[in-house]
Amino acid sequence: TKVSSHPVCTDDMKVSSYPVCTSDTKVSSYPVCTSDMKVSSYPVCTSDTKVSSHPVCTSDMKVSSHPVCTSDTKVSSYPVCTSDTKVSSYPVCTSDTKISSHPVCTSDMKVGPYPVCTSYTKVSSHPVCTSDTKVSSHPVCTDDTKVSFYPVCTSDTKVSSYPVCTSDTKVSSHPVCTSDMKVGSYPVCTSDTKVSSHPVCTSDTKVSSYPVCT
């Protein structure tokens, strides 16, 4: 598989979705995997796996999904997980927390930092938050909220950076935007665009650079 831009894959590579790298795969850029590595999904690293860059996993590590780390797991960098499944930073989930995927949180969940979702919070996708949602930290989303950083998004909200998108919203960067939206860069897809997964774009899509779709 050849990918012309981030996350670049070299020849002789099999990548089913971004940014997965199968065994015996070399990737020249983020999220780089070294040779003889098995990674089932981003940015998961199986035991005895070394990854030279973000999201780095040290040897003898087991991570079931990004960015969840199981107990007795140490990760030296983002997304860092400490032992006994407590992690102080992004995207940490405390005990008694159910997270179906990154970084969506279902109801009755308590998560301290980014991407934090308070209890009874509905989040349709990362990192969009619907109305009636209170999030104490990044990516915070509430109605009529102006946030200067990512990834806030609600109606009537203007956000200067990634990855906010709602109707009548202009976002200069990543990640996904709905119809009536103009977004200059990755990984935005405008209306009439089909994207099977982030940040891959299917047919009828013009993509000038990865993973932008317009």
Automatic annotation (TrEMBL):
It comes from the Eukaryota. This is Uncharacterized protein.
